[in-house]
Design a protein that fits this description.
The strands form 5 sheets. The protein has a 9-stranded mixed β-sheet with strand order 2-1-11-10-12-13-14-15-16, sandwiched between helices. A 7-stranded mixed β-sheet has the order 7-6-5-3-4-8-9, with helices on both faces. By secondary structure, the chain is of the alpha/beta class. The radius of gyration is 24 Å and the shape is globular. Among the domains are: 38-198 and 233-245, ANL, N-terminal domain (Rossmann fold); 443-548, GMP Synthetase, Chain A, domain 3, CATH 3.30.300. The protein contains 16 helices and 26 strands. The chain binds adenosine-5'-diphosphate (ADP). Residues 186-190, 303-306, 325-330, 334, 360, 421-423, 435, 438, 527, 529 line the site of adenosine-5'-diphosphate.
């Protein structure tokens, strides 16, 4: 017998409708690429999103057509999130930090019909325009006055002109909630970029779960600044969450340096922001230099890469900002786990609490997870045994878009389909998952695994270390041994011996890195993650060469 409740479809357009009706005068503030600050409301955004949908309909855009964006976090990008998905087409956010060949590959693979872009990315558009034959027009996200002259692109349109042609009387269509809404490619650090195609339903369920108190805990009293780009897994869902709960949104545009971010956080009285650890390095560095403190910030979401314990300490104990350590993937929309404390952790000392929060956290309702060993058997949740992390749930990928490999990304395990994340993790009795490594980054020393993240965490607490990455270097006897690659803080005179001695008593002795190499910079990928494969190419033979020398 079926229940007798309404079967209203879960649609992305309902989020902006709700925000308009219940939080119509709540602000959306954006630092524009034109340089100024733009301010309007959810009501304005809803009106303009309908104009986008109407204008695209006039251009002949059909349901399920892919519409690309190459854009920073800003109000026009938000209008596309709602306008494109709302009309039944698919908004395809492209990461402009990828190499131009990858951008062209992704746009062609997605078969984008139109590509919207911020003026910053005009040079990139010029490089790819001739290679993207399916694209009917490139639309510069600016007004008539700022349109580039003689850009050399045949089919170039102006966003504001296009919008003027759209009607605000447009009515959102009733779509099937399982229809695709959004397309996002993985950043390619794990092979060729692969398309993850979210649906209206998966996006809405993710939004509900992510907003919960033990998740990101968002409300109408929050002012949210997503530093995480809207081209990186929908800015972790924050543009949707803000509409669901009616929080004010602040978009930083292209200005992601510590000084610009701090200015915006203070002027707009931001309470919650989100980004990868590398962004926070810049912000914390700025605060240290200037001696300033936050006046309104209460929480910061840190994810995409492990949050170093030293960063947790600085945010929480020095600046009074609670850290929400989040783990996720493009394939998970992206949120899987969040490190919110349980009641029993509250009595702990700050150092003990930071150790708990250094873990990637508990699964949000909707995500099932488990760890399995090489024999395929499920491993215990004892906080010590590590294995391959597998997940499943209504916002976890089932297959990649136009998957050419003939091979499902899912694994059959104990009669059910699971997504193998490629991460290696432990899970403790409280259900806190801790990533010890990505499976391909694990250091296998004499048949035992050494977790690189732990070793990086220790190095990062040294006052002279600015950045540290630990990689597997080939070793004649042990196959692989840990090698630490370090960027020293400016003017710091740290030696290899001092840093290695710093490990004493902090980890098992045999985990101590075999050597340290000091470098000026550590290579980062398009989503701010350390490119360990690049470091392995560069330093993988370091120990062998040293042994011979
Ligand atoms: P890609 O796999 O292409 O880099 P994602 O941006 O989706 O794309 O990255 C997901 C991966 O990032 C995870 O599988 C994990 O290895 C890493 N990751 C994400 N959040 C964290 C975190 N809090 N701690 C450690 N690693 C993380």
């Amino acid at each position: 017998m079926h229940g007798l409740m309404m079967h209203k479809q879960l649609l992305i357009s309902s989020l902006i409708e709700h925000a308009d009706r219940h939080h119509g005068d709540t602000q959306i503030v954006s630092r524009r690429v034109e340089g100024d600050i733009h301010r309007y409301t959810f009501r304005d955004c809803h009106r303009r999103a309908r104009q986008v949908a109407s204008a695209l309909t006039s251009l002949g855009v059909q349901p399920a057509d892919r519409i690309g964006t190459l854009a920073w976090n800003g109000y026009r990008h938000l209008e596309l999130y709602y306008g494109v998905s709302g009309m039944g087409a698919i908004v395809h956010t492209i990461n402009p930090r990828l190499h131009e060949d990858q951008v062209a590959y992704i746009a062609n693979h997605a078969e984008d019909q139109y590509i919207f872009f911020d003026l910053t990315f005009l040079p990139l558009i010029k490089l790819i325009a001739g290679r993207c034959n399916r694209v009917k027009a490139f639309i510069a996200m600016t007004d008539h006055t700022h349109m580039p002259k003689d850009a050399g692109i045949d089919n170039l349109l102006c966003y504001e002109d296009l919008l003027q042609q759209g009607s605000a009387d447009y009515v959102w269509p009733m779509l099937d909630e399982d229809a695709a809404s959004t397309l996002c490619y993985t950043s390619g650090t794990t092979g060729n970029p692969k398309g993850v195609l979210y649906s209206h339903r998966s996006s809405l369920l993710h939004t509900y779960a992510a907003a919960l108190p033990d998740a990101l805990n968002c409300s109408a009293r929050d002012v949210i600044l997503p530093v995480v780009p809207m081209f990186h897994v929908n800015a972790w869902g924050l543009p949707y969450i803000a509409c669901m709960v009616g929080a004010k949104l602040v978009f930083p545009g292209p200005a992601l340096d510590g000084k610009s971010l701090f200015e915006l956080l203070e002027v707009e009285q931001v309470t919650l922001c989100a980004g990868v650890p590398t962004v926070w390095q810049g912000l914390l560095g700025h605060l240290e230099e200037t001696g300033q403190h936050f006046s309104s910030m209460k929480r910061t979401i840190i994810g995409g890469a492990a949050c170093p314990t030293a960063m947790l300490h600085r945010f929480q104990e020095i600046y009074g900002v609670a850290v929400l350590h989040v783990w996720g993937m493009t394939e998970l929309s992206p949120i899987g786990t969040i490190g919110t404390l349980k009641a029993r952790h509250l009595a702990m000392s700050p150092a003990e609490r930071n150790a708990v929060q250094s873990k990637q956290g508990r699964a949000v309702f909707g995500v099932d997870m488990k760890i399995v060993g090489a024999d395929g058997l499920e491993l215990p949740w004892d906080g010590a045994t590590s294995g391959d992390l597998m997940v499943r749930g209504p916002w976890v990928v089932r297959d990649y878009f136009k998957n050419e490999s003939d091979c499902s990304p899912l694994l059959e395990h104990a009669g059910q389909a699971w997504f193998p994340t490629g991460d290696v993790a432990t899970i403790d009795v409280d259900g806190f998952m801790q990533i010890t490594d990505r499976s391909k980054d694990v250091i296998k020393s004499g048949g035992e695994w050494i977790g690189s993240i732990d070793l990086e965490n220790v190095a990062m607490t040294h006052p002279s270390v600015s950045q540290a990455a630990c990689i597997a270097a080939k070793h004649a006897k042990w196959d692989e041994r840990p090698l630490l690659v370090v960027v020293r803080k400016a003017q710091a005179a740290l030696t290899r011996e001092e840093l290695l001695a710093f490990y004493e008593g902090k980890i098992a002795k045999w985990w101590t890195p075999d050597d340290v190499v000091f470098v000026d910079t550590i290579p980062l990928g398009a989503t701010g993650k350390v490119l360990k494969n690049r470091l392995r190419e560069q330093f993988g033979d370091h120990l062998l060469v040293k042994a011979v020398g």
